[in-house]
Structures are given as structure tokens and as C-alpha cells.
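Data availability (excerpt). The following record was deposited with the supplementary files.
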Amino acid sequence: MHRRQLLAASAAASTGIALAGSAIAQATDDETQASLDTVMAFMETMGGGDMDRMGALMANDMVWQNEGDPDLPWIGTWQGKETIFGFLGTSSQNVQVTRWENQDAFASGDTVAVFGRMRLRLTASGAETDEFTFALRAKVRDGQVVLWNWFEDSYAVSQAFHAA
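Predicted structure:
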């Protein structure tokens, strides 16, 4: 998918991610603060649809992992920027974020954890999930995200995806 198309699709799908900076965070040293800042900037940039900035915040060998129902086209592991941009296009064609709230964010060294609540509308079925919690574990190297390990209520999302 062309990055311009992905920009429009990702912006629509990730509207709520722009609130990334509102999470409560605790940081104790420069590396920890830099890691937290990088992850929050990545979330905000993704929500705003700025694919060039997002690409600059991604390591070339970044790994993106989504856990859940393997029948969903956005569940799995993707590695490398171009592969991840392709995955994001697939995701944005299938999922619209209708609510997003970061509630807590914690960092230690190169590792960041973010917890919050969200709601999704699944494009194919038109079904919307109830609000559910999410968790993210991310790792940062040299100011770039190298790991994005995403956890959501995959049962609720799968039920909405497969709704008749």
C-alpha cells in the first residue's frame, strides 16, 4: 500500500491514539525518560497519521506483535518497517478506533508499558466492541521503537469481527 493511502487509512483508524500523551508516567533516569518519550511520540504520531515521522521513530528491524485470534488479519508478528506499514494498512481497513484512553504508562530503561481502555468498530461486520482494556510492552533502542507487543481483549474483538 502506498504510504499516502496508508496515512489516510491509519489516521481514520487510530483517531484515539492522539491522546497518547495523557497517560500518567513515572520515569527515574534519562534512558527511561527517553524510552517513555519515544513510545508516547510513536503513539501520538500513529494517531495523527504522520507516516514519515512514524517511520523515523521505527528501527529498521522493528518487530510488531499482536496477540489474539489467528483468524483476524491483524494478529501475528511483523518485522521491518515496510512489512509493518503494510500490516497497518490491513489493520486500518478492518478496524476503526472509536475510543482510546491511556490510563497508565511506566518505563524502566529501554522498556515501556502502557495500559488503557479502548473501543473498536470492525469494518466488515459493522459491529462495535464494548469498551475493553489493552496493554502494550514496547522496547526502545537509540530513540527508535524496536518492539511493539500489543495485547487487547482478543475475544471481544474476535466476536465483533465474526458478528453476523
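Summary of structural features: Confidence is low (pLDDT under 50) at residues 1-22.
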